Amino acid sequence: MSLRQAIATPDGKRRYVRALFGTIADRYDFITVVLSYGQDRRWKRRLMTLASPRPGARVLDLATGTGDIAFAAAALGAKVVGLDITVRMIELAHAKRHGVALQFLVGDMLALPFPARAFDIVTTGYGLRNVPDLTKAIDEIGRVLAPGGQLLSLDFNRPSNAIVRAAYLAYLTAVGAALGWLLHRDPDTYRYIPASIRQYPGADAVARMFEARGFSRVRCYPVLGGLMSIHHAIRANGAHRAHGD
Ligand SMILES: C[S@@+](CC[C@H](N)C(=O)[O-])C[C@H]1O[C@@H](n2cnc3c(N)ncnc32)[C@H](O)[C@@H]1O
Predict the structure, then answer these.
(1) Structural domain containing residue 61
(2) Does 188 map to a domain?
(3) Residue 111 is assigned to a structural domain of this protein
(4) Of 22, 27, 150, 170, which is least packed with CB atoms within 10 Å of its CB?
């Protein structure tokens, strides 16, 4: 079965993503630096500047991975929970704590183990593109955010221009295949990134989804000339029905 077929259904994508991040967890930090040419830290700093949590703010970092965004929020005095579905990612995040006061949990962002309105800020770095049901993920975020709370998401974009998109995806496929072969003897490992971008609605469409699911003041900041983006949205007071209000 091809990679594209493997992630074509929600169940298939769920299984594929779980296995993939378990496999790459130990090399995740290294790969992120290589694939972003060292820019990833800067993009995450930008996300945190937009969020600007006040000391004591309740922050939930979804798909936290090894915890970069969670640690950045904790450094500003926020009360942080980092959540990820991959056990190994959470073990690696714990290992980086060195006494920093924050909490890491294994969990699924499609079924968050928190009551409604439990957080002031929800962040995610490269998280939304990986879930098998984007609408459900947005509704879960809306449910756990307090009214007026902020959502910030950094992710790859799916460029709307067909030529730019083709060149971008071809580049990511070639680099991903080479790295996958070198590090895991499996060229598909990092070809998942372009495959998931092909499936992704793109930054503008995701912004419209936030608006349709009860978020207001939705902004989409282009990063790397629009190849990536940061969404910033506010959980409206009268949020979507799906939040259970
Ligand atoms: C590309 S990594 C991003 C890690 C980190 N946020 C960062 O910016 O470096 C994507 C993460 O999403 C996690 N993930 C995928 N599906 C998830 C889900 N349904 N719930 C929670 N985490 C999930 C993976 O385990 C992986 O750690």
Answers:
(1) 3-158+201-243
(2) no
(3) yes
(4) 170
Per-residue tokens: 240: 């979507």
* 172 assigned to some structural domain: no
- Residue among 110, 109, 114 nearest 64 (CA): 109
CB distance 137 to ligand 1 below 6 Å: no
In the chain the first and final C-alpha atoms are separated, in Å, by 43
Q: Render 148-190 in DSSP notation, one character per residue.
A: EEEEEEEEE---SSHHHHHHHHHHHHHHHHHHHHHHHS-TTTT
Tell me the pLDDT of the chain (245 aa) as tens digits.
Answer: 788 899 999 999 999 999 999 999 999 999 999 889 899 999 999 999 999 999 999 999 999 999 999 999 999 999 999 999 999 999 999 999 999 999 999 999 999 999 999 999 999 999 999 999 999 999 999 999 999 999 999 999 999 899 999 999 999 999 988 988 998 888 888 889 999 999 999 999 999 999 999 999 999 999 999 999 999 999 998 655 444 44
- The total of structural domains in the chain comes to 1
Q: What are phi and psi of 196, to 5 degrees?
A: -70, -30
Task: Give this prediction's pTM.
Answer: 0.94
Q: Is residue 171 part of a domain?
A: no
**Closest protein CA for atom 8 of ligand 1:** 125
Q: What is the CATH classification number for the domain harbouring 125?
A: 3.40.50.150
Is the Cβ atom of 150 under 6 angstroms away from ligand 1? no
